[in-house]
Amino acid sequence: MVFQSLPVRLRAWSSLQRQWKDPPKIHSAKRRIYAICLIMASMALVVTTFLSQTDVRIFQLNLIVNSFGVILSLIALLLLWRWHLWMRIIEVLIVTGIFSYTILWDAMYLRFNLLPNREFVITYQPVFLLGAVILSLMVPQRALLPLLSVPFFTHVVLSRLLLSHFIWGEVHSARLITELSTLITLIPLTLIGEYQRAVILAEQAAQSIHKLAETDSLTGILNRRGLMSQFGQEFAVVALLDIDHFKSINDTYGHEQGDAVLQGVGEYLHGWASADLSSHQSVQVGRWGGEEFLVLLRQCPAEGIAVWAERLRAGLERLCPSGLAITVSIGVAVKLSEESVTQTLRRVDKLMYQAKFGGRNRVAVAGGVSQQSALEVTQ
Fold this sequence. Notes:
The chain has helices at about 1-15, 25-50, 55-80, 85-110, 120-140, 140-165, 170-215, 225-230, 245-255, 255-275, 305-315, 340-355, 370-379, and strands spanning about 235-245, 285-290, 290-295, 330-335, 365.
């Protein structure tokens, strides 16, 4: 319970209020980036461990700290690979550990009043950049530069305090070059967050536009265009239903009540597709036009299409949207392998009109299966 509630507590505490759960694509990409960063950091720690030091205390401390860092990196890699929910905590630990590592060595050299060798200065500075990369993936762009400035300038101040005690030499030159390189790298790095934000917003806008273009604004289910886009996939059964005497509903009760009836039918079909059949076969429902609705099944229902269509008709008869009793006429057919989508739709349309001319409130199924046989099977 403690570990499960920790991400929630950290999110509530964070002043950045960044979304705690990343989208799947970003989550997967970040896992790969962090794995590479951890491997690179481990390699840098191994290299710096065996660099010659001027003081035995520094060498011993270097060996202990770097060994501990490599172990933590391996643990983080394991958690990152096996338990995806730990990624946010790993992010925080990696960034904190990297920045603490750089500042720790600044403080240690200042404490012992010792100059590090030039190779050590050059090799451990890129570790700071790894922390900056990970931080850029964690926080919004507007917060990145202020957050990076804190460890960077702490590092610069401690370095200046140490170097001021010694005459200018190779270590001073190496420190100056690495700090300038780091600063030059950090400035464009702050733009990565803005790029990420722009990409995410563009994807969200494209998804919203695509959804609006393929969604019926009145009923909230697919419109004709959305249904047409589904025809590119394989489907087995097509059902076209039409609300009986819908014009009379508009003429008698007004178009507002007519819209309420359409909304009620749309909501029912959406619930039918989600709750009744989603666990067995893929179902798509949409408004084909006017008072006509189309249902697509990826595979034939186990109970048979006649019984399935009759249950759908009976359910809509019991619906009574906005207090009005309605009935529907349904034409349903199995798509034949040799016919096109257009031919199937024409066949289903004729079956729907056959149900209309047969007295309405009934199902017409291709292949001569009548409503009466469907009712008998249902009973």
